Amino acid sequence: MLEIKNLHARVEDKPILKGINLTVRPGEVHAIMGPNGSGKSTLANVIAGRDDYEVTEGEVLFEGENILELAVDERAVKGLFMAFQYPVEIPGVSNAYFLRSALNSKLKAAGQPEMDALKFMTFVKDKARLLGLDNSMLQRSVNEGFSGGEKKRNEIFQMAVLEPKIAVLDETDSGLDIDALKVVAEGVNALRGMDRGFLVVTHYQRLLEYIIPDFVHVLVQGRIVKSGGKELALELEAKGYGWIEEELAVQA
Amino acid sequence: MASPTMDRLLLPGFTPQSGADSRAKALAMVEMATLPNHKAEEYKYTPLTSLGEVAWVEGIGTGLSIENADALSLPGVAQTRFVFVNGFFDPELSDSVPAGVEFLPIEVALQQGLTEGKFGTLANLDAETFKVAAHLGQLSKPPVPFTAALNAACFQSGAFLKITKNAQVEKPIHLVFVSAGALATSCPRTLIVAESGSQATVIESYVSAAEDATLTVPVTEIFVYPNATLEHIRLENENLVAKNIGLVEVRQEADSNYRSYNIVFGSALTRNDINIFIDGSNSHTRFDGIVAIGGEQHVDNHTRLDHVKPHCESFEIYKHLLSDKSRAVFNGKIFVHQDAQKTDAKQTNMTLLLSREAQVDTKPQLEIFADDVKCTHGATIGQLRKDAMFYMNSRGINPVKAQALLVYAFAAEVLELIENDELRAALESLLFAKLGTERN
Questions:
Q1: How far is A60 from chain B, CA to nearest CA, in Å?
Q2: pLDDT band at B109, cuts 50/70/90?
Q3: In sequence order, which ranges of B124-250 are alpha helices (DSSP H)?
Q4: Which DSSP state fits A69?
Q5: d(CA A69, CA A59)
Q6: Band of the pLDDT at B113, cuts 50, 70, 90?
Q7: Which one of A94, A105, A168 would you mutate to disrupt binding with B, by most B Cβ within 10 Å of its Cβ?
Q8: Which run of H or E residues covers position A246?
Q9: Looking at the partner chain, which of A50, A73, A158 has a beta carbon nearest the beta carbon of B398?
Q10: pTM of the predicted structure, to 2 decimals
Q11: Which tens digit of pLDDT belongs to each residue from A36-52?
Q12: C-alpha separations of B195 from A10, A34, B95 in Å
């Protein structure tokens, strides 16, 4: 479903990703872990299409199509979603209007009828409840004045509404207290299913106690240096990233 | 002897009528004047010399179809409309006068007012028998600005509108000024009187019948009497080759409310002078503006507010949304006179530059002669936030729509205060259309 092949990317003259290979099949949850500066967030943002990065080599295939050629919104309407590490505040645009525009863009691209305001409100209210979000937030401006936890819940709420095929979570857990983390994880777990793939980027193993991954990959210095099952996350938590970096040094 | 450039604007058809001395004086003034160039401080960024290079013709007040009139007068908004073609009232295209309102073409009102000294022929006059002659020209006194002189010398027609004492007029009253015909000029004159205790919404629209280049020089005088509330929407939505050089003069008396919106989407060139004189205490004034332009449009708004009496509040916010090579000028003067203690005045000008070639010149000007007042002003100029664009795009909203939403959000602060839902929605739709996307 999502195939990353030999992906290289840089910021200005600094190479960040140095040949990433990764395949996410429908229904799978892949966790990307790694120390600060390893390129985790770069990977998430390159997939989503942020133009601060330059892809120098490689492909990202989504359902067989190289999405690196597509504009950000074109990727999104095909079913790609990124939950932001730092969700953006947009004063003056209500969550409801924002989300309905997003949903209708997707429906339009799929050749389906768009949703009017009334129908949309019934549709989203259930999803908001699922994430413990008060309905009144729909009338508030996007993320404006939201707490850190509310912003992250809003990301997952948007994901629940847009029902993507591939969801990339960029450090959605960072800065959350345990209650907020549980709510976010429940939201994600509710969306897990045979037809949807997840790429969960995180610095901490803690999130993976609540979102159990099928695969864990360790990203160091722009490469995936180790892959394994969920037990790899526990090992990383116990030993830190130092031992992997040492292993790499020995090999080099 | 008229200067060569002014000759072009003083058309053969424009001769002083009705025996008004003031008209002859204005004409003399215009004949003495030259079109202001960039050396004149108030016209520094918007010289009007190019107006003299065109062979204008006198606009004719006929020929607009009812379908065209419907399309041009904010369809979807329940309203009472009065349609003017090149400044001339067209009763066929207009609605009947509702209760609480008196309306006449200004030339008719003026004639009656001058000859009889009152509106002898109008029914339902209240005690303070109204004299058009006593009001007309009281606020707009040539030669300053130039627009006042030109209009006073040239106007042949326009609107006289009165909201009678204590009348609450539900439906917005829409004065639709349609410019029509190649190189047609018109100098419509409007006089609006909101008598004490009255409440109404008046829309003054400038629109084009077709794609011809036209020149409109409108002057609007507005009296807001004690305890009256007047909402005034002035919409410039002409085609992109039209020119509009306008003047609005407002006088507010005690305990009055004047809320105005100066909305500019159309025209190649717009120059507005908007002057408000608050001549009574405990008055509230809100005068906002939205300028959403692109291409090579040029829009210059000069506003001036005089706080003369104590305990008044004013709030002014002007927002510019500039695309392509468009250019906007904002000059906002606030004078707080010596007796205007406890004045609370706030002025803000915000500009979004949507292209590298768009340009704005903004000049706040506060002069305060009282010592116990609150006065603030601020001007910001910025670009669309890249992170917000990316965020919206990443949710599937395409860049055109995302930009329109962000820009709309920027402008919404002004439009959302309009209480009439249909009217607000109609103006929002125009804004969205101007930004190149449909509202859904």
A1: 16
A2: confident
A3: 132-135, 146-154
A4: G
A5: 9
A6: low
A7: A105
A8: helix A242-251
A9: A73
A10: 0.77
A11: 889 999 999 999 999 99
A12: 69, 74, 22
